[in-house]
Amino acid sequence: MWTPTTRKQHSRPTARYQTDLTAKEWRLIEQHLPAARKTGRPRAWPMREIVNAVFYVLRGGIAWRLLPSDFPPWPTVYRWFAAFRDGSVFEKINHALVMADRERVGRDASPSAAIIDSQSVKTTEAGGPRGGACPRAGRRPDPGDAGKKIKGRKHHALVDTDGRALFVEPHPANIQDRDAGGPLLQVSRPFFPFVRHVWADGGYNHERVTQATGILVEIVRKQPDQVGFAVLPRRWVIERFFACINRNRRLAKDFEATGNSAVAFLYAASAMLLIPRLARSS
Question: Rounded to two decimals, what is the model's pTM?
Answer without folding.
Answer: 0.88
